[in-house]
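Kindly inspect what follows.
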Amino acid sequence: MEKSKRLYLIGAGFAGRTLASEIKKKAIFGEVVAFLDDDPEKIGRKIDNIPVLGPIRDVALLLKTNPADEAIIAIPSASREYLLELYSILKRANFQKIRILPGISQIVEGDARLIQTRSIDLQDLLGRNPVTINLKQSLSYVRGKRVIVTGAGGSIGSELCRQLLSGGASRLYLLGHGENSIYQIDRELRLLQDEGVGEKAAIVPVIGDLKDTTYMDYILSQLKADAIFHTAAYKHVPMMEENPVAVIENNVLGTENLINSAVKHGVKRFIHISTDKAVNPVSIYGASKFICEQMVLSASKRYTGKGAPNFVVVRFGNVLGSRGSIVPLFQQQIEKGGPVTVTHPDARRFFMTISEACSLVLKTGGVGENGGLYLLDMGEPVRIRDLAEQLIRFHGYEPETEIKIEYIGLRPGERLDEQLWEADEQPVETEHSRILQITRKKPLTVEIEPLLNELHPVCRLDPDNSKAYRNVEQLRTVLSRFKILN
């Protein structure tokens, strides 16, 4: 946390007062000069000897602060529109450092801590207003349980771990094959706990590869997990088009290993994270995720009775700001002076913030029925061109005149629009806000076991069928014959 001499807290509610008290106790981060607030009942008062000034628009512009001064937005209930307005006001008031308290679910429950603040970015200002979820209530099903998050170092996996701190799990296993990413989320979670965020789950980093059948069987026998959130996957569409066998091996056979080991070693809940690219797939990544969906749903029918896992699939579209996604790419391009590269002027995608997606995934994991396929309500699709223009303006430039937008054409495996469900699927509202359940008009005819039998020799060397090993043409033939990928 950087040292700052003069801090302005935007919002004099519970979160702002909690931060002010923490800053005063630690003393090393600087001094809270004032609260800025729009509530007439608070303006003019003093809270712990700190004045409350307002309305924010008028006062901030009068302040014209020194660039070294810092503003922290501590209004977890603020709408996206209000945040965008606040950001614009604070920038005009000469604040160069603007931080925000993210994670409305956790903050509403009184867990506001200075350690949770971070620099405001575009994902805080885009899209719709996030749904408010009581995480402690939603996560009651993991209280006292052992929980595994696969791909725990990734964007979705790491945010699931942060939110799971509120659930009261006895152990939180961070499973991944990337040493550095697992080290980073392990260190971050321990720091959050040290600063009073969440509950005291034992955090256990686990380095391993889902593709290793023997290891997965061994590690699940040792961990004795009650629940698994399966987020691990290769997911970069154009790169996976160039490495098709690798994506099938990792995503499909890795998921197969995980399912088999989960069933064998008494896992009670298996929550699989899927994507809109699994709908009528046109990419090898989409095909792999379609197969994974069907494997999990098939397992829910194959393994029944006492002790069998509760298998749930949660499907959603793109998340803003994930590693390797377009927002970080656009930011890098803007920092270099452009151009910002967009595939097509009419390309559109469904977007949701990482924190909202993860809150809804965690809720679905508790309320989802065995064999249920759930879809997060993604709202309306966003044109990538519009997103690029907003991001350019967010950085203080004008699109086209100062930062050019260059259209480079759709890349292999990409399409103009994504779909959230296919023709034979029907989304049905549930009693839970922004969680839909997918029902099918006709049963799927994909036979999982014969399909996997044909994929195995392509991904794993079989001395009796060595010509199949890493044979991309044979892989695509198999996927075409099973009507998964044309």
Residues 6-120 form a domain with the Rossmann fold fold (CATH 3.40.50.720). The chain has a mean pLDDT of 91. The chain is about 40% helix and 20% strand. The radius of gyration is 24 Å.
